[in-house]
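hi! just following up on the protien thing from before. the input was this:
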Amino acid sequence: MDGWLVLALVSLAVAAVFFVVWRRALSAQAEAEGQANRAQRAAEGAANEARQTAAFLAALQAVQTEAAIVISPKRQVLAWNSVAEALFGPHVAVGQTLILATRSTDLDQLAARALAGETDCDQQMGLGLESTPYRARAIRAGEYGAVLVLQDLSVLQRLGRARRDFVANISHELRTPLTSIRLLVESLQAGVVESPDEIDAVLQKIETEVQALEQMAQELLDLAQIESGKAIVKLVPIRLPQLVAETVERFEPQAMAKQQTLSTDIPSHMEVLADGDLLSRALGNLVHNAIKFTPAQGHIWVRASQQDADVLMEVADTGPGIPPEDLPRVFERFFRGDRSRASRAGGTGLGLAIAKHVIEAHGGRIWVESEGRPGQGAIFRFTLLRNDRQLAA
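and the predicted 3d structure came back as:
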């Protein structure tokens, strides 16, 4: 009996031990599964975060305007953005040396200086096939290498030249009428001009010069208002024949003075959605431009036609035309190319820039076509919204 009791007690003890071990095993398994689940969720979260970060970096790279290259301490390319690839070509590859990828000893030396610990690693140099001017900056990233940032300076240099040209041009354009007015006034004060007819002629010349000054001042004011956003465009139905007739009428005395023919061909029923004052100003700049560059006894046309759901406007002339190399720049502020030099015409070089801003503010587009041959002239074209198109919407 005692033997059976001992056996029973031992069995209970063994069962208790197995129960405890089993519970601990279950607990350990549950803990392991929990850790595994938490690790999986953490991995999924890290993967999602990595994907989001990659998406953000890709978006930042897409809108980045400066070329960037990441290099190792051994000056090997680790990464680059699309701007850098466009600059140096698709042959750039991970692991290449910087000098092999860029073909630039100047850039390679700048990177070496940054990796050596120099802090003032900022240099201007020519890069790419056309040796375009760039500002190159090398920034050391600790022991991991360096980042090269390349800023294209060609646009800034062109803007700087444009500003300098503008100052020179506006100074010349202001000096000419002011000098003429001063000489004419001195003639009146000195009594050199005595007869009423001669006095009237002098006063008429003074008025002409004053009008030239007023036009320059108005162009400067117009451009400043348009670029600052203060010129609000109000699109309302406009009868195009009436607006064109009123605009062209202002320039008929100038055309008659040069014995030019100024013709219009606008369908009588045509209406557009436009701001009358701004559109008249833009069209007037194009007409004035055509009269200015067209020689005596030349011809200027102002035409309109339907193009799909828009209205196509044209201002054509029989002037010297525009050289092909100047066509992409004629709408730039202050630009005065060979066409103006050939005709020795004055002006600030703002009229076409104003016209471009106005037409684009109307939702249209403007462009110019010319073969650059004397007598063939140029054709300025722009589009406007047709009134019936807006009403149908």
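The chain has eleven helices and twelve strands.
Confidence is low (pLDDT under 50) at residues 339-344.
cheers
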